[in-house]
Every structure is written in structure tokens, then in C-alpha cells.
Amino acid sequence: MSGGGITEAGAAGRIRLRLYVAGTSPRSTRSIESVRRLCERRLGGACDLEVVDIYQQAALAAADGVVAAPTLVRLSPLPARRIAGDLSDERRVLDGLGLEGLGLEGLDVPPAASGADRRETVGGGGGER
Questions:
Q1: Distances (CA, A) of 58 to 68, 81, 124, 129
Q2: Most Cβ neighbours (<10 Å): which of 7, 82, 86, 110?
Q3: pLDDT tens column, 24-63
Q4: Terminal-to-terminal C-alpha distance of the chain
Q5: CA 14 to CA 53: how far, in whole Å?
Q6: For residue 52, what pLDDT is reported?
Q7: Residue 76 is inside which H or E element, if any?
Q8: 76 beta partners
Q9: Cβ-Cβ contacts under 8 Å for 28 (sequence gap 6 or more)
Q10: What residues have CB less than 8 Å from 107, skipping those under 6 apart?
Q11: In whole angstroms, what is the distance from residue 47 CA to residue 66 CA?
Q12: DSSP letter string over 21-57?
């Protein structure tokens, strides 16, 4: 399963995201829709999104240190960051990926949740939790 294929280097100035999902479950479908909507509405379409099914590309998931789905990985700009779990809260996703300042001015978006939700945010290298 792949969508919006991206090049290895990515386009200059664009955000590269990789979304890991588990098959074609309703949760996977909702995650894909949420991230695509985020790219269009909050990032002005300035992102390249690749969707990876962990069942079909387990080696790629392992290389990115992904152990759960859905997981969204920001590949660029570096450093890589990732967030797992419910991806429907756009503010939480943007904050978790370090993109909270992009395209949010003047939008009616509630503040990101604190506490337990922030524990799902993982930055940097693989295997961190």
C-alpha cells in the first residue's frame, strides 16, 4: 500500500512524511484520511506523504524503528520525529512532529493535549519510547 510516492531526497523546502498502517482496517483508513487532511489544511500541501502497510513492508518499518501502527514519521526536515496512536488531533500531531508553527496562524484549532497524550511522541532515533 503506497500513496503519494516520494523521492529519497524530497523536494526542497517540503516536509516528507511516512505513515505506517496495519492493512486496510477502519483505523488505518481513518489515519490515512486524517494525515492527508492535515497535509492539505495545515501544511498547505507542502508535504510529501508515503503510506506504508507494515504487513507488506515489515523490513521498512523495522528500519524506521516502528513497532506499532499507526505511526507517522517526519523524515525531513531532519531530525526525524515520530508519533504513534490516534492521529486525528491535528494540533497534537503537528506538535509531536515539531511542525506546530507551520500554517496555524488564525486557525481555530484547540491546544494540544498534555500529559498522557505527549508520551506517545517519540523524537530522534529508532527504538526510543
A1: 11, 19, 20, 19
A2: 82
A3: 999 999 999 999 999 998 888 789 999 999 999 999 999 9
A4: 26
A5: 23
A6: 97
A7: strand 71-76
A8: 16
A9: 21, 22, 53, 69, 70
A10: 42
A11: 21
A12: E-TT-HHHHHHHHHHHHHHHHTSTT-EEEEEEETTT-
Task: Give per-residue pLDDT as tens, 55-106.
Answer: 999 999 999 999 999 999 999 999 999 999 999 999 999 999 998 765 434 3
Q: Is the dihedral of CA 9, 11, 16, 19 positive or negative?
A: negative
Secondary structure element (H or E) that encloses residue 92, with its range: helix 90-96
CA-to-CA separations, 57 to 22, 53, 61, 63, in angstroms, rounded:
10, 6, 7, 10
C-alpha cell at 97: 512532529
C-alpha cell at 49: 506523504
